[in-house]
């Protein structure tokens, strides 16, 4: 059976990928499983570029097919911020998940409902070896919503912006959904669906 490295140190993200990829005939491995502690410099100007930087880096380290992603929150009224800086938004004093969520609410104070549109956007890159050839696939997806007036009571570790994004149809925070409900709506589910042909090809390769 082929092995696939999920290149993340975020336990919540790893759990979501295990849920989304559970039906595939591929053995999933984590960075912790392979005892890989180093990380690349995420110097890309887009989520796509950063996802590919990470996937190539960990593919070279692990010598395994590698899936990496990069994503964050884009708020239209903030000119698309925090964008690719979503996890480094507070600079030298990054704080924690709640601080990031509260910063969004602070900066959106007084913005009318019609201008509170935002999305959780993500890109995923898959790098794998097909015989002597190294193949790559990059996909992008987004989950649209609106910024709430306050931070949800519970901030899920690793997913700070789920505590500020409300779904248009239900009005619910993404953070208040169950793990299964969130995965069904998740931008990562859309990424996996787009990568399914490449993942199927990976499952059929011998080396």
Give me the secondary-structure topology.
Blueprint: E1 3-6, H1 11-20, E2 27-30, H2 47-62, E3 65-75, H3 97-107, E4 117-130, E5 133-147, E6 165-166, H4 179-185, H5 187-204
Parallel strand pairs: 1-2, 1-3
Antiparallel strand pairs: 3-4, 4-5, 5-6
Short description, anyone?
This protein has one domain: Maf protein.
What fold name goes in the CATH topology slot? Answer: Maf protein
Task: Kindly provide the name of the CATH class.
Answer: Alpha Beta
Q: List the uncertain runs.
A: none
**What is the gyration radius calculated from CA atoms?**
17 Å
User: Which class of secondary structure composition applies to the elements?
Assistant: alpha/beta
Tally of distinct domains = 1
Form type:
elongated
Q: What portion of the residues fall into strands of 2 or more residues?
A: 15-25%
Profile the largest sheet.
Answer: 6 strands, mixed
Strand order of the largest sheet: 2-1-3-4-5-6
What does the model show?
With 207 residues, the protein is α/β, with parallel strands linked by helices. It has one domain (3-204): Maf protein (Alpha-Beta Complex). It is built from five helices and six strands; from the N terminus they run E-H-E-H-E-H-E-E-E-H-H. The chain has helices at 11-20, 47-62, 97-107, 179-185, 187-204, and strands spanning 3-6, 27-30, 65-75, 117-130, 133-147, 165-166. Strands 2-1-3-4-5-6 form a six-stranded mixed sheet. It is elongated. The protein starts with a strand and ends with a helix. The model has no long low-confidence stretch (mean pLDDT 91).
């Amino acid at each position: 059976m082929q092995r696939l490295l999920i290149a993340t140190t975020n336990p919540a993200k790893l759990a979501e990928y295990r849920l989304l990829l559970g039906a595939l005939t591929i053995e999933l491995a984590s960075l912790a499983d392979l005892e890989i502690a180093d990380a690349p410099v995420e110097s890309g100007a887009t989520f796509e570029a950063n996802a590919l930087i990470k996937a190539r880096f960990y593919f070279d380290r692990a010598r395994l097919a590698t899936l990496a992603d990069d994503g964050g929150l884009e708020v239209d009224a903030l000119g698309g911020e925090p964008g690719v800086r979503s996890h480094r938004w507070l600079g030298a004093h990054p704080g924690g998940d709640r601080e990031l969520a509260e910063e969004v609410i602070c900066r959106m104070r007084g913005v009318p409902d019609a201008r509170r549109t935002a999305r959780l956007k993500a890109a995923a890159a898959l790098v794998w070896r097909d015989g002597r050839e190294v193949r790559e696939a990059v996909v992008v997806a987004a989950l649209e919503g609106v910024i709430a007036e306050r931070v949800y009571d519970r901030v899920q570790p690793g997913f700070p912006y789920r505590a500020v994004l409300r779904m248009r149809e239900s009005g619910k925070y993404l953070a208040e959904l169950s793990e299964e409900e969130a995965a069904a709506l998740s931008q990562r589910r859309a990424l996996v669906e787009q990568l399914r042909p490449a993942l199927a090809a990976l499952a059929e390769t011998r080396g």
